Amino acid sequence: YDDAVPSRRVTTANELHIPVGRPVVLKVTSHDVIHSFWVPNLQGKRDLIPGITSAIWLQADRPGVYRGQCAEFCGLQHAKMAFWVNALPPAEFAKWADAQRQPSAIPSTPKQREGFETFMNSPCPLCHNIQGTDASGKTGPDLTHFASRRSIAAGTLPNRRGYLAGWILDPQHFKPGSQMPPM
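-> C-alpha cells emitted (183 positions)
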C-alpha cells in the first residue's frame, strides 16, 4: 500500500484490504513468468508480465471477502496461487491500515518469546521481514502481521497452528515446487 510518506506504507501477502465504494488501483508485475491477476466478482483480468509494471482497478460496492486467482497457467503450482480481497467499510479500512502500520507485537508470554527466539535463530529472517525486528528478508512474504491473515502459502492452507507447523516442516508436501524450503 503505497503512500507518499514512507512510514505510512503497508505490506501484506496474498491478502488485499480495500475500502468499499472507492476505486483502488493496483500496480502489478511479475518477477518470473506470466501470471494473470483475476478477482472474478470485482473486475476483469490483468496479465503480469515479467519486468513490466501495469495497473488494474478494483472497486467493491459492498463489504465482503472476494477470492482471487492467478488465471494464467504459470507453472507447477498455478492452481494453488490464490489470494483474498477483503472489502471493508471506509472507517474499518482506515482502522485496519493504521494497525498494519504498527510494528509486530512484542512477545509477552514465555511461549511467545520461545516462538520468537526460534524464528529469529533460524534461517527464516534471511527470507522474511517482521517490522520492528532484525528479520529483514525480502524474498519471502512479510510476516509482520501474519497472525491476522486468513491463509498461508498463497491460499493453499488456512492460517491455523497445525497447518502452519506442517507448512514449515514440509512445504513441498502441500505445494510442490514452492520456494519455501523445509525447516
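The chain is about 20% helix and 20% strand.
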